[in-house]
Amino acid sequence: MSNGTRDFGLLLGRLNHRMTVLGDRLFRRQDDAARAAGWQISRLWWGLGRRYRDPRIARRARSGAVRPKDEAAPPNDGERAPVLVGAAGRRVR
């Protein structure tokens, strides 16, 4: 490996680390809310994006427990799902 290639690799590694640290700071509150709800968190775009996923939905879909669209939803007994807001201030679905 040439010296220039190694230097470029080190530069990319440092940049990736800094972007990940910045993303962790930006999304700290949303990540904490997602973890408290038991959601899975995926880092995207060098740490500057997030994807939140509720694993219970996939389990229900595999088990056939998902109701048809025209069927009414049962009451949730006052339990609210966490509202996650991205860095741009938009709700994350």
Mind explaining what this structure looks like?
The mean pLDDT is 80. The radius of gyration is 19 Å and the shape is elongated. The protein has helices spanning 3-26, 28-36, 55-63; strands at 40-44, 49-53, 84-85, 91-92. Helices cover 45% and strands 15% of the residues. The chain has 93 residues and is an alpha+beta fold. Strands 1-2 form a two-stranded antiparallel ribbon. It has one domain. 8% of the residues are buried.
Brief sketch in words of this structure:
It is built from 3 helices and 4 strands; from the N terminus they run ααββαββ. By secondary structure, it is an alpha+beta fold. This is Transposase.
Write down the overall geometry.
Answer: elongated
Strand order of the largest sheet: 1-2
The parts where pLDDT drops under 50 for at least 5 residues are none
Strand-residue proportion: 15-25%
Q: Can you tell me the number of structural domains?
A: 1
Rg value: 19 Å
Task: Set down the secondary structure blueprint.
Elements: H1 3-26, H2 28-36, E1 40-44, E2 49-53, H3 55-63, E3 84-85, E4 91-92
Antiparallel strand pairs: 1-2, 3-4
Relevant terms:
93 residues, alpha+beta, 3 helices, 4 strands, elongated, Transposase
